[in-house]
TrEMBL record, chain A:
InterPro entries found in the cross-reference section: BPD_transp_1_N, MetI-like, MetI-like_sf
Native source species: Planomonospora alba
Entry protein name: ABC transporter permease
Lineage: Bacteria, Bacillati, Actinomycetota, Actinomycetes, Streptosporangiales
Family the UniProt entry places it in: Belongs to the binding-protein-dependent transport system permease family.
Transmembrane segments: 101-121, 133-155, 197-217, 255-276, 305-327
Lineage top rank: taxon: Bacteria
Pfam families: BPD_transp_1 (PF00528), BPD_transp_1_N (PF19300)
Membrane topology: Multi-pass membrane protein
Ranges of residues in domain ABC transmembrane type-1: 95-324
TrEMBL record, chain B:
Keyword Transmembrane: yes
Matches recorded under Pfam families: BPD_transp_1, OppC_N
Protein name: ABC transporter permease subunit
Keyword terms of this UniProt record: Cell membrane, Membrane, Transmembrane, Transmembrane helix, Transport
Organism field: Planomonospora alba
Top-level taxonomy: Bacteria, Bacillati, Actinomycetota, Actinomycetes, Streptosporangiales
């Protein structure tokens, strides 16, 4: 197992290095530089030259790249031209918000998806099955931001049950030692802040979690249907094992293997979807920051954030493979 | 197997063929019919929008103020939008934009992916290695972020949106086609063709490629659905330019967000249009996948 993980980690290095070069060149190809965005259209050539020198934009691209990548390896992602703060700091500030949101979405997707998919498979061919399948097809095709709007309109604006935007009511006196607001509420034993942070996560979490939910439902259903007809399930039934044992140990454990893979693959979807969801709910996370940085042509932020996303994405995929090995002894042996 | 048995099998196979067999099953599949109906309706609306739409999509036809936007009525089925334009006509014209964006980005992505996949699958060796590492790099950025990046680089506009969505699909098609071609190139008919001296170029282009295309067609249909949704998402983020006269569903949704409280239906119509268009291609793609999968053959 350790050798497998080590080999996979080594394989990631050239991919990420190549990606960093591509990202660096891509950022250089963006129209209208950060200087223009910073100084406006009527800046004098002298001012432009001075700012370019300040950010090192007047040197050859490979020198700038080596400079940048050297800094990246040391944890320095440059300075945001929009907020004038270090990119790493902005990342540390916004990423916990998105992790909280993505986890909420995943809990929703898996918590509702696995039971629904399992039930649909057990009641194969009934109205419950058809309803689940049809619902999951709608879930896959509905645009995240449209769903977000509808949820926001119905539950926040009309019914007033949940907050419309943000992560925390500004009127609540809350401390944030970790940046994960729900966790912070627990740590500081501030139950009001804890509940408020949770309430702010419900609607965006559902909006972001709907596509993963639909995918989890479909995979679970298909997988349980496959397993139900396996020989070992019939053998277990013939042996006279208790139905609950068969369902738990034979059907569900085997059926969940593909679900684990699929859940892991949602990491990319969640990070991408967060850009839209966070924009709808003005949720101050990673995705909202990326969206705002596009209009401001904030090179350093886009570079750093996208590279960071890629690292997270490939590491999560690696973790999924490891988890797969832990659940499925056959993979571990191979 | 005796000769007679083999002949019997051949006779049974002959009138079917995977294509005709798939067609027969598609016609009997209610999911496929529902999907096809939605797709046909969507394409028909897109093509006939100038004749179907009762009003021009880009000119005000009524008086509106930000606080009073007329809802659905007999003259204006979907009401007016924030600039006093007929919402129904705009949704109809929007089908045209979604169809163009979907088809163009699919074709571009397919062309790029086929080129890369063909390179990798046909040459193998270091070409294969280099192409697949590039594909790995592209796939290591989540799709929407990748599309945002490409669209931002090209400068906001509908052409940028199309290229961005195509770029996201290039690695997907490349990997799919390469895998198919690798599997096909180990098959008996390739061995047979090689043995009788068919040139390698003709084996790849005349035998391996056509036989590898089935999953690509399925993926293409499903990609049309995601392309429509992704295009709406990019437009929503302001990446499709700022020409307000273009009735693009995603932008219509984004533009009406300020009037969510006074005219919530303005967001519902383009939103549902996106859902149904994408649903049609998804249903059709899923049933195509099943119909073309030999596993389901009976």
């Amino acid at each position: 197992m350790a050798a497998f993980v080590a080999r996979r980690l080594v394989l990631l290095v050239p991919i990420l290095l190549g990606l960093s070069v591509l990202l660096f060149l891509w950022v250089r190809a963006l129209p209208g530089g950060p200087v223009e965005a910073l100084l406006g259209e009527r800046a004098t050539p002298e001012a432009v030259a001075r700012v370019r020198g300040l950010y090192g934009l007047d040197r050859p691209w490979y020198e700038q790249y080596l400079d940048w990548i050297g800094g990246v390896l040391g944890g320095d992602l440059g300075v945001s031209s929009r907020t004038q703060r270090p990119v790493a700091e902005e990342l540390a500030r916004t990423f916990p918000a998105t992790v909280e949101l993505a986890l909420t979405a995943l809990v929703f997707a898996v918590g509702a998806g696995v039971p629904l998919g399992y039930l649909a498979a057990r009641r194969h061919g009934t109205w419950l099955d058809h309803l689940t399948v049809t619902g999951s097809l709608f879930g896959i095709t509905v645009p995240v931001f449209f769903l977000g709007y509808m949820l926001k309109f119905a539950f926040a604006e009309k019914l007033g049950l949940l907050p419309t935007d943000g992560r925390q009511d500004p009127l609540i006196d809350a401390e944030h030692p970790t940046g994960f607001y729900v966790l912070d509420g627990l740590l500081t034993q501030n139950m009001e802040a804890f509940g408020d942070a949770l309430a702010h996560l419900v609607l965006p979490g559902i909006a972001l979690g709907t596509i993963p939910l639909a995918i989890v439902v479909r995979i679970t259903r298909a997988s349980v249907l496959d397993v139900l007809h396996e020989d070992y399930v019939r053998t277990a039934e013939a042996k006279g094992l208790a139905p609950a044992t068969i369902r738990g140990r034979h059907v569900l454990r085997n059926a969940l293997l593909p679900v684990v893979t699929v859940v892991g693959l949602q990491a990319g979807l969640l990070l991408g979807g967060a850009v839209l969801t966070e924009t709808v709910f003005a949720f101050p996370g990673f995705g909202k920051f990326v969206a705002d940085s596009i209009t401001a042509r904030d090179y350093a932020v886009l570079q750093g954030f996208i590279l960071f996303t890629a690292v997270v994405f490939v590491l999560v995929n690696l973790l999924v493979d490891v988890a797969y090995g832990l659940i499925d002894p056959r993979v571990r042996a191979a | 197997m005796s000769l007679a048995q083999a002949e019997g099998a051949a006779v049974q196979e002959a009138p079917g063929g995977l294509g005709r067999d798939a067609w027969r099953r598609l016609r009997r599949d209610p999911v496929a019919i529902a999907g096809a109906a939605l797709v046909v309706a969507f394409v028909a609306v897109a093509l006939l929008a100038p004749w179907l739409a009762p009003y021009p999509p880009d000119k005000p036809v009524g008086q509106v103020t930000p606080t009073s936007i007329p809802g659905p009525s007999a003259e204006h089925w979907f009401g007016l939008d924030d600039l006093g334009r007929d919402e129904f006509s705009r949704v109809l014209w929007g089908a045209r934009w979604s169809l163009v964006i979907g088809v163009v980005s699919l074709l571009l992505g397919l062309a790029g992916g086929t080129l890369l996949g063909l390179l990798a699958g046909a040459f193998g060796g270091w070409v294969d290695g280099a192409v697949m590492r590039l594909v790995d790099m592209m796939l290591s950025i989540p799709g929407l972020l990748f599309a945002i990046g490409v669209a931002a680089m090209l400068g906001a506009g509908l052409d940028a949106v199309m290229i961005a969505i195509a770029a996201v699909n290039v690695p997907v098609f490349a990997r799919l086609l390469r895998g198919q071609m690798l599997a096909q190139s180990r098959s008996d008919y390739v061995l047979a063709a090689t043995a009788v001296g068919v040139p390698r170029r003709w084996i790849v282009l005349g035998h391996v490629l056509p036989n590898s295309l089935t999953p690509v067609i399925v993926q293409g249909t499903l990609t049309l659905a995601t392309a429509i949704v992704e295009a709406a998402g990019l437009a929503f983020l302001g990446l499709s330019g700022n020409d307000p006269s273009i009735p693009e569903w995603g932008r219509m949704l984004a533009d009406t967000q300020r009037y969510l409280a006074s005219a919530p239906l303005l967001a519902v119509f383009p939103g549902l249009a996106i859902v149904f268009a994408a649903l049609g291609f998804t249903l059709l793609g899923e049933s195509l996948r099943e119909a073309l999968d030999p596993k389901y053959r009976r």
